[in-house]
Write a structure and sequence with these properties.
heterodimer; A: alpha+beta; 15 helices; B: alpha/beta; Rossmann fold; about 30% strand; globular; binds adenosine-5'-diphosphate; binds magnesium ion
């Protein structure tokens, strides 16, 4: 039968029995609606909740612990060193692996005045993370590709200093270009790492004249003197380039009659230790924070602190704060001469940064671990961060890692558990939708059995006028497919509509609850086509038996009935 | 009568149904020849097997014994698709109950045979449907629904539908059975007009002696057998 003719026959038949067609469609609409809804919810929970906390294909491994009298004890075994990291990196399915080293020294940090109007003070915890591990994420969350686009650079104004340029722009090679913060998170930043005899320096540097210096350093940092008003350097203002150059005077505390000069834009004078005013011109430590910190602050802390919520991550770029390394509110301080008071600057956001703490370049943390706690503290990593090629590789990697005496970190375990719960729940709900669809198919079968019976005379006439058996089957199935297509579109569309309403309601009524995501639903591109296909499949399946009956009707016998 | 000019050639044609697990011999050993362009009336009492014979001749029913050739083709030997196509091209049906499709307009009903694979273009088909309706005095009814029409009008639509693809054989089961005398005479005139102008063979079942007399030949059936054949053979 020709397609156009088929469609118009189907349409006229459906029109004449539209009430029954609509009733038969109800089950299909409900079934495909549930299916689409649950697919969107499952995908949304994975993408918007789980992935935000910890991406599924990124794992964190720690040495395997055993429970002894209720406490976790790490088995006596070799430390997590580079050799072990290489072992993990070599596992099948692992794309790359890096050691992470936490700070083992006491520290505190304070700052936030430029943002909040007053300073927050807190004990500080640092994770040392290799720059390469977070690079991609930093660039993504910052939107670096747009900043590097031709339009961003084309209309650059001429400049000498960053100050000559608009907000968010910096001076590079005499023209204003967008600041790419991610570029500042490097393994060995322009920071003076003090050292003494026997102290460990980062790879590629050696201890020279009290600091770790690169071999062929082109522009060594300059000596500077903190102004008297700055006291021991604890309360320096960020907005002034504080400190006067001490070089090239022989007497480090004299000015030699030269005009006072500052450390230069983007640098500040960091004292050698808290009890001296002599220091080095250097840049702030590049710091990466967890994006969830902002939500925790906005939802839990801002109100009790009387501060306004922070609108977006973007305003945090370039925010500076003070860190006191080796100085603590709680525990025993390190030797004064080993303590460091430095500044840090927020250069990006990563889910690999600690939720409550700050990520610094690993070599920096490592250096201070060695300096403040001894070289042994800088030897081993605490955990290994790894990326797998895909989610499917994760279970195998976990098994292999266990053979190496490693297990998932608490965070990774929680993420996996949550992921499994989401998956199992979505599957159960999809199964429920399948049951509804199966019931709907039975309903379709009954309706079509009735329609075929009522129309058997019309079918016989069609056969007499030249319709082959297959034409009759196609006609009945075409009618079923049309009902399915309409039902699938209605169901899928309704599900997306309801999801949108739920998301809006959540945005409105759950705005103050911490960690509530921006909506719970993500509908993949294939969601509606799938709903359509499933709906058609179930209606056609339901109509199969009636279609067979219709095509096997004996037209002569039917026409003989009067 | 040459072989090419024979529309229907049945010999030893039998048809047995099973009803309540007992055989019903609706036709027994019927032999019948109909020439192209000839009109034959089949008469007989109710239950004599007239409709059964007509369904066989119309290639709607393959469950016979004996031999039945329609335009030289053994009906039983054709597979469903070929047979459906054969019906579509070679045979026009007209029923007592008109059997128009109630969900389709008059025009769509007439165009129905063209739905099943034809070389006719859309314009040509519609033109032919309009022409046929015009011939039968229904020129302005193309878009109407059958339910709005009288019995005589519906039967004319059914005849137009049967003629759309210009089949060489028209089988009519009591075409005037539901119509009053005047309308019946008109329909009969239409059918014989077609027979004359197109050389269409006409096989019709009727109870009406006048209708039977109008045909070239009358075949009487009783209990499934041909008992009497009147007219030129
Ligand atoms: N499909 C069928 N199944 C069983 N018996 C049938 C069928 N069609 C016809 N018959 C029987 O065959 C006989 C002839 O029927 P039919 O050809 O319809 O007679 P007529 O048209 O002459 O009234 C009747 O006894 C009828 O009951
Ligand atoms: Mg009959």
């Amino acid at each position: 039968m020709r397609l156009g003719r088929l469609l118009s026959l189907v349409a006229s038949n459906l029109r004449s029995a539209w009430v029954r067609a609509a009733l038969a469609m109800v089950g299909i609409v409900v079934g495909t609606g549930l299916l689409t809804f649950f697919i969107g919810l499952g995908q949304g929970l994975r993408e918007k909740v789980l992935e935000r906390i910890f991406p599924v294909n990124q794992l964190e491994l720690e040495p395997r612990a055993v429970q002894i009298f209720g406490t976790e004890q790490i088995l006596g075994q070799e430390p997590l060193d580079d050799a072990r990291v290489r072992q993990v990196a070599g596992l099948p399915g692992v794309v790359r692996a890096f050691g992470k080293q936490k700070s083992s020294f006491p520290a505190r940090l304070w700052g936030g005045k430029e943002l909040l109007g007053y300073n927050l003070f807190t004990e500080a915890f640092f994770d040392g993370i290799p720059a390469a591990v977070v690079r991609g994420e930093l660039e993504e969350l910052e939107g670096v590709s747009a900043k590097r686009g031709p339009s961003a650079i084309a209309n650059g104004d001429r400049c000498e200093l960053d100050l000559d340029c608009a907000a968010g722009m910096g001076c590079g090679d005499g023209v204003c270009v967008p600041i790419v913060w991610a570029d500042r998170f490097v393994e060995v930043p322009e920071v003076v790492l003090p050292c003494g005899d026997g102290d460990r320096c980062p790879q590629g540097t050696t201890c020279q004249q009290g600091r770790c210096a690169k071999a062929g350093e082109s522009a060594p940092p300059q000596r500077c003197v903190l102004p008297a008003a700055a006291g021991t350097g604890r309360d320096l203002q960020f907005d002034r380039e504080v400190g006067e150059l001490a070089q090239p005077c022989a007497d480090p505390l004299g000015f030699c009659g030269m005009p006072a000069t500052t450390c230069g834009e983007g640098r500040y004078c960091a004292a050698d230790h808290p009890e001296t005013r002599l220091g080095w011109c250097e840049r702030p430590l590049p710091a990466v924070i967890n994006p969830l910190l902002l939500e925790v602050f906005n939802s839990d802390m801002a109100r009790s602190l009387g501060a306004a919520p922070i609108g977006s991550l973007a305003v945090l770029f370039g925010v500076r704060f003070h860190v006191a390394l080796g100085d603590s509110y709680f525990s025993k301080d390190a030797d004064k001469h080993r303590q460091q008071f430095k500044q840090a600057i927020v250069v990006g956001f990563s889910r690999k940064a600690p939720e409550l703490g700050v990520a610094l370049p690993r070599e920096v943390v490592r250096h201070f671990n060695a300096r403040l706690k001894g070289n042994a503290a800088a030897q081993a990593y605490d955990t290994i961060l790894l990326d797998t090629a895909s989610n499917q590789d994760v279970p195998q990697v976990i098994v292999e890692a266990e053979k190496l005496g490693l297990q998932l970190s608490r965070k990774s375990r929680a993420a996996r558990t949550f992921g499994t719960v989401v998956l199992v729940t979505s599957l159960a709900l999809v199964l429920l939708a399948a049951v509804v669809l199966a019931v709907a198919a039975v309903q379709i079968a009954q309706t079509f059995a009735m329609l075929v019976h009522e129309r058997r005379r019309e079918i016989a006439v069609l056969r007499a006028r030249g319709a082959a058996r297959i034409d009759i089957a196609v006609l009945v199935l075409g009618e079923a497919a049309a009902i399915g297509a309409l039902g699938g579109l209605c169901g899928g569309g309704a599900a997306i509509g309801v999801a949108e309403l739920v998301d809006r309601a959540a945005a409105r009524f759950l705005a103050d609850v911490p960690l509530v995501p921006q909506g719970f639903f993500v509908f993949p591109m294939w969601a509606v086509p799938l709903a359509l296909a499933v709906a058609i499949a179930f209606t056609v399946a339901g109509a199969l038996a009636p279609a067979r009956r219709a095509m096997r009707l004996d037209p002569a016998a039917v026409l003989a009935e009067s | 009568m040459t072989a090419a000019a024979i529309a229907i050639d049945a010999s030893g044609l039998s048809r047995t149904f099973i009803a309540d697990q007992r055989p019903v011999h609706a036709l027994r050993e019927v032999s019948l020849r109909v020439a192209a362009g000839e009109s034959v009336a089949i008469v007989g009492r109710s239950g004599a097997g007239k409709s059964t014979l007509l369904n066989l001749i119309g290639a709607l029913d393959r469950g016979y014994q004996g031999s039945l050739r329609v335009f030289g083709e053994e009906v039983r030997a054709m597979p469903d698709r070929a047979l459906s196509r054969f019906r579509n091209r070679q045979i026009g049906f007209v029923f007592q109950a008109f059997n128009l499709l109630p969900n389709l307009s008059v025009g769509q009903n007439v165009l129905l045979p063209a739905s099943f694979g034809t070389e006719l273009g859309h314009g040509e088909r519609v033109e032919r449907a309009r022409y046929l309706l015009g011939e039968f005095g229904l020129a302005d009814r193309f878009g109407q629904m059958p339910a709005q029409m009288s019995g005589g009008e519906r039967q004319r639509v059914a005849i137009a539908r049967a003629l759309l693809l210009q089949p060489p054989l028209l089988v009519c089961d009591e075409p005037t059975g539901s119509l009053d005398g005047e309308t019946a005479a008109h329909i009969l005139g239409v059918l014989h007009g077609i027979q004359r102008t197109h050389g269409t063979a006409l096989v019709l079942v009727t109870h009406d002696p006048q209708v039977a007399q109008s045909c070239d030949r009358v075949v009487r059936l009783d209990k499934g057998r041909v008992v009497d054949a009147v007219g030129a053979a």
